[in-house]
Amino acid sequence: MSDNRGLAVVTGGARGIGEAIVDELVAAGYRVAVVDVNAKALAKTAEREAFRAGLVIPVELSITDRTAVERELGALAASHGAIQALVNNAGMTLPATFLDQTDEDWNRIIAVNLTGTFIMAQVAARQMVEQRSGVIVNISSVSAHGVRTGPAAYAAAKAGVEGLSRLMAVQLGPFGVRVNTVVVGTTATPWLLSRKSDEELETMRSTTLTGSIGEPADIAKTVAFLCSPSAKHITGQMVSVSGGQWMP
Do the beta carbons of residue 59 and residue 68 sit within 8 Å? Predict the structure, then answer.
């Protein structure tokens, strides 16, 4: 394990890609706060060896609740020091075409994917600006670029995350805070594999230049690199981890 790099926060960290990101950041030397709204999934975090070693901290939290975010991130800083890295991975979507998208679903998807990212980033960035260092990685999707079909709200939210990330990089750079975006393609999460047939998965493979579907570890290793000292001169960038589904 690398030298202690301080505290990292990963939203949506109890499952899928988020869980893989937590593993990579722990291996890199971070103590990681695992933020998730799913209490059942979060409870499994407390069963892990890293929890027993004091390297992961489960935090049940809705990222759309600013008051709760300010309270919990403040408590984490008081107990473990200011946040050194934030990964905004939490997200959700609902099945619908553009013509069928309801206002209710639009608002819910935008709230989690875009507003929640904004709230978490702003609260964490205030700590980072004070200490004049930090890194934020926001997770986007190839859906923002029209690569695959899906709800209009999800595509709009992820496009918003990318624009927000660029603005953050410009405004936070003078304070020593780096901001980058990882654009995720089709990834073999447990959620995806449980819902798609072999035929559907094969169709998804055919949309990549590599002829393969990504693994959560592919995303996690990229995020860990961007959070590392090796990436100290990288900010304001969008990194596509999609097998070539989308190329910047």
Answer: no
